[in-house]
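CATEGORY: protein folding

GOAL: derive C-alpha cells
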Amino acid sequence: MTSGSAGPPRVIPASPADLDVLGQVIADAFQDLPQSQWLIADPAARRQVLPGYFRLLAEHALACGVVHTTPDWSAAALWLPGGTGGAAQPAGFAARQAAVTGRWADRFAAFDRALERHHPPGTAHHHLAILAVRPGGQSRGTGTALLRAYHERLDRDQQPAYLEAAEWRSRQFYRRHGYLPAGLFYLPDDGPAMWPMWRPPRPAQPA
C-alpha cells in the first residue's frame, strides 16, 4: 500500500486497536533523532522506553484530536487542537507519562515544558504533534499523503497549523507543504535545536 501502487498511500483514521503498533512505528522512526538522544542517551534504553511513551501520546491525540495512519500502519500523524480552547492534558496524564518514562521522567517533563513555552498562544490552530513514517518506508510519499489528507480539512475550514520540526531536513520538507519558519529554540542543558513552523490556510479554491 505504501510502495509499488499507482496512486498515493491511502490515509485512514486510527482506532484504539492501533495504538500499540503506532507507538512502535513512531518509536522506530524517532529512535535516532537528536531530541530522542537528548531524552535518553542510551540506545537500548530508548528502544525500551519510547514505544510506550509514543503510545501514550497517540492515545491522548486519539481522545482529543485526530490520528491518521495507513492500512498497513506504516505511518502516523497526530493532530491536536491548539491555542484558544486547545487540548489540555487529561487527568492523570503526567503520572502515566512518569510511569512510562521511569528514571528519565524529569527529562521528558523538561521536554514538554520547553515545547509549551514556545507554543503560540491565543490563536486557535491545529498542532501537528507527530508525523512519523516507519524506517524503510520513507521517501515514498507517505508523509506527504498524511499531510495532504489533513490540510484539505484545514484549507476548507480556513484554519492554521503549527508544528515543531526536529531536524533541518524535516524543516525543508514542511516548507514544501506551506509551513513557514516561526523561530528557533534549543532544549535545555545544551540540547538540540527545534524549529517552530506555522502554516496559514491556503485560499479556498473556487468550485
